[in-house]
Automatic annotation (TrEMBL):
It catalyses: [protein]-L-isoaspartate + S-adenosyl-L-methionine = [protein]-L-isoaspartate alpha-methyl ester + S-adenosyl-L-homocysteine. NCBIfam families: pimt, PRK00312.1. HAMAP family: PIMT (MF_00090). Pfam families: PCMT. The keyword S-adenosyl-L-methionine applies. GO terms for molecular function: protein-L-isoaspartate (D-aspartate) O-methyltransferase activity. Catalyzes the methyl esterification of L-isoaspartyl residues in peptides and proteins that result from spontaneous decomposition of normal L-aspartyl and L-asparaginyl residues. It plays a role in the repair and/or degradation of damaged proteins. Keywords: Cytoplasm, Methyltransferase, S-adenosyl-L-methionine, Transferase. This is Protein-L-isoaspartate O-methyltransferase.
Amino acid sequence: MKDTHKHQGLRNQLVKTISAKGITDTQVLQAIGNIPRHLFMDSGFVDFAYQDKAFPIAAEQTISQPYTVAFQSELLKVKKGAKILEIGTGSGYQTAVLIEMGAKVHTIERQQELFRKTKSFILKLGYKPKSIIFGDGYKGLPSEAPFDGIIVTAGAPFVPSALLAQLKIGGRLVIPVGDEVQIMTLFIRTSEKDFEKHELGDFKFVPMLKEKN
Ligand code: SAH
């Protein structure tokens, strides 16, 4: 499938929609305006790709709603060249947004099927994360730590301490915390020991799969 003028037109509308909902970071809006979201979706849903909604992907997971992707990406305050860890590669859409914003992205997926499919897909599309890893997001990625930002794209039952530990001083963790409904939570590491915590409203994500021992 291709990316056409029609798709670009729909994307421009989507950018207007999410900016009307309060997203102001121009890097985020540009990324969403550039990325062919329809290519990240299963063929049955491509006609809806530019609606501001989540949709099913493989393995009972979802591609997050564009507004949610934008909201989380804005909270990360990505600078060019920033080192970012994403937990929950899923369709690869959020990964692509971060790469478009100039981040060096490491991304972890816990489901083998999605990991394989998305890895080959996003590389083919020309998005090159620093690494795409099949593993358990609760553990983070100690070999690459510390990070400027960590983004969790599944509902976390609690805040994994490994993720807080892998932030640089000044680094930001964006994580939806909760079971049925999640509170979008931002942690900013202000010193070796201290974190600022901000709670930024309710969202609904698929649950983060259990920790592996
Ligand atoms: N960022 C994705 C959102 C996908 S939904 C996108 O833009 O499409 C959340 C993803 O998190 C799913 O793919 C799910 O398999 C993955 N996931 C759930 N628990 C995980 C864990 N413990 N470690 C890593 N990935 C996990």
